[in-house]
Please model this.
Amino acid sequence: MLVSFDKLPLNSRVWVYSSNRKFIQKEIISIRKDLENFLSNWTSHNQNLETGFELRYDRFIIIAVNQEINNASGCSIDNCVRFIKKLENKYEVDLLDKMNVFYKQDKHLYHKKLNEFISMYKNNLVSLNTVVFNNLVNTVGEYKLKWEVPVKESWHNRFMN
Model:
């Protein structure tokens, strides 16, 4: 059952998928439809899941499940990953590489591979205060509070020595 993302409790499980390129407007419209179709029918052990999604910055797909109603099982999560892989193929993007770094600089959003981002740090092109997107958040609450954070408050920090 698809609901507004804002209606989901803060402890709802969340997954963040980031694209290595911006989506164009017609892709965003199509991705919304794809997400609505998939999430409206997403089940776990034949039980409907209460789900919601957001598309942010023309790059991020955020999917959440209200686990107070039904938990997403391993099989249902596998189904979601298969759906995401279909989106990757359909739109020719990379959505599953967790080692991509997305960061803000001068009010713009950028994407780099982790090793490139580390080099940028070593060359003083980014700092520990640079805002990065922590796509490893686990709940809607974490997503709202800890998704856009300085490097020094994210998992990225462990690579900056």
Notes: The chain is about 30% helix and 25% strand. The chain has a mean pLDDT of 92. The chain has two domains: 5-91, 100-159.
